[in-house]
Amino acid sequence: MRYSQLFGKTEKQAPRDYQVVSHQLLYRGGFIRESTAGRYYFLPLGMRVADRIMAVIEAEMDQAGGQKMITPVLHPLELWQETNRTASTGFELMKIKDRRGAQFALGGTAEEMFVELTRRFKLSYKDLPFNLYQFSTKFRDELRARGGLMRVREFTMKDAYSFDRNEVEFKKTYAQMAKTYSRIFTRLGLKTQMVAADNGYIGGDYCHEFVTETPVGESKYFTAGDYCAHAEIAKFKLKPKNLGEKSKSMKKIVAKRGPTMEDGVKLHGLPLWQQIKDLMMVNEKGEFILGVIRGDLGVNEIKLKNVVRAYDLRHATEEEIIKLGSYPGFISPIGLSKKVKVVVDPSLKTIVNAYTGANKKHLDYLNVNYGRDFKADLEADIALAKAGDIAPNGKKLAARRGSEVGNIFQLGYHYTNLMKGSTFTDKDGSQKKYYMGCYGIGIGRTMQTIAEIHHDDQGIIWPESVAPYQVHLINLQVSADSIYDQLVKAGIEVLYDDRDDVSAGVKFADADLIGMPIRLVVSAKTKDKIEWKNRAGKKIELLGLEEVVKRCLKK
Ligand code: ATP
Ligand code: MG
């Protein structure tokens, strides 16, 4: 490719509001352009990177027995209703109507479509297991688009769906996909960590994110030795506080204080951990849920949402709390309306003689003991982990941040239970539901994460596996046309900066910015030799054309 003909040129500056370096570099290098917020053009250079990423993914998916196909992007809305996913506001679902009034979801993920397809076939146990995948455009009406390709509203995803006969067989598929993902990201030049995470709107019981550690990522997780979990689900051990203390009888006292936890600490002169924290939430059906936890801990709203099996949870408003017969800042599980489902964190078993509000302004309870003075409708871990907490394996949690480039999910029978007829005929002639998993990789986010990890002050340093061209050929004063032709003839992918109206400095700067793995320079100085420099290194060598070709082909 001659640079003079290339559509999309380099820029000295990125727009001021581009804060993430990889975003700036992809813009400046001529890889991408934004259309509207969160929707991007991939320019020819960017498309070549995306294509190479997809080629690696495809090769590894095929190696693992995956079969590539494609579904329509518009999914009949009835299918999403069948799985209750139109009710889930956690999902950034977009909808569209055609001129006949038929309603569609713009696919953000495609579980329904693949189940709808497979249930039309009379599958027998001999047909399973199989794993179907596609590369297709996904739509997500994200609240905020952010960081260039990191969080967008429209993007290409590789999504795969596995169908197994039972859980035992599925576990092998899941382990195989985990290995496949590790191999994919290694080939793409990314170190990833497999982080246990929350299934969210996708459904199922467990999942793992593949995360590359970088401060510009949005996944917050913890590691502690071999323990690695997303902040949404991370577990930690609790130490007992004052269990040695004798339990005293509960009393209600006047408490002229403000509504915060600190106000309670100040008024009573007792530690924060001895206070009970009460968080009033409302689910999608308008039902009230009270999260109750030790005062020094935070409520993990995702854990809470999961334990009460809600699609959506939000904080109750002050008016709602008052209408319930309680008072903001003075909520208490004691004497609370029976309408409220009380979820108690096990941390309340680590304290005695606690204090909390009494559901009335300026009234508190002292010496509250869980089990004696109030009971839980549900006792479950709803605590938010923080750095320094002790992981289940006894090691300290360290907080980390990264970019989630891929995700693998166990779905189990989640969809096959909800979608009628998603069965196969087993050996004994009976109809059995298939056991599922799904596996996603975002192409754009992966591409930008690679640029984020592989760059220096001058620009991107593409790993060979994804570079848009292998070689960046530069001519200074003399022509390099014949060298270009010979390299191309030898099967080497070359971007040839053939401009004669820019300085050597500009050409070098552009080569560093665009980031091809090898830079070749032909000038009056190099005579019949070619100057070779790796983008990542400093060493400059003078080589003959034959040697250049040999080395390129070896790579
Ligand atoms: P996130 O937690 O970042 O919103 P997700 O859990 O919604 O991601 P999945 O539904 O698992 O993501 O989608 C699979 C993959 O698609 C992700 O691992 C990521 O690479 C990519 N992806 C998801 N949402 C976006 C987005 N808004 N922009 C870019 N890539 C995305
Ligand atoms: Mg998401």
Describe the structure.
With 555 residues, the protein is of the alpha+beta class. It has three domains: 43-72 and 108-234 and 399-451, Bira Bifunctional Protein, Domain 2 (BirA Bifunctional Protein, domain 2, 2-Layer Sandwich); 251-384, YbaK protein (Alpha-Beta Complex); 471-554, Rossmann fold. The chain is 23% helix and 28% strand. It has 13 helices and 31 strands. Strands 3, 7, 8, 9, 10, 11, 12, 21 and 24 form a nine-stranded mixed β-sheet that branches. Strands 16-14-15-17-20 form a five-stranded mixed β-sheet. Helix 1 packs across helix 10, helix 2 packs antiparallel against helix 5 (167-187) and helix 2 (44-63) packs across helix 10. The two termini are 20 Å apart. The model has no long low-confidence stretch (mean pLDDT 96). It binds adenosine-5'-triphosphate (ATP) and magnesium ion (MG).
Summarize the structure.
The protein has 555 residues and is α+β, with helices and mostly antiparallel strands. Helix 2 (44-63) packs antiparallel against helix 5.
Keywords:
binds adenosine-5'-triphosphate, 28% strand, Rossmann fold, alpha+beta, BirA Bifunctional Protein, domain 2, binds magnesium ion, YbaK protein, 555 residues, globular, 23% helix, five-stranded mixed beta sheet, nine-stranded mixed beta sheet, 3 domains, 13 helices
Instruction: Write the CATH fold name of the largest domain.
Output: BirA Bifunctional Protein, domain 2
The end-to-end distance, rounded to whole angstroms, is 20 Å
Overall body shape: globular
Q: Please summarize the sheet with the most strands.
A: 9 strands, mixed
Given helix and strand content, the structural type is: alpha+beta
CATH superfamily of the largest domain: Bira Bifunctional Protein, Domain 2
Number of strands: 31
Whole-number mean pLDDT = 96
Classify the beta-strand content into a percent band: 25-35%
Bound molecules: adenosine-5'-triphosphate, magnesium ion
Number of helices: 13
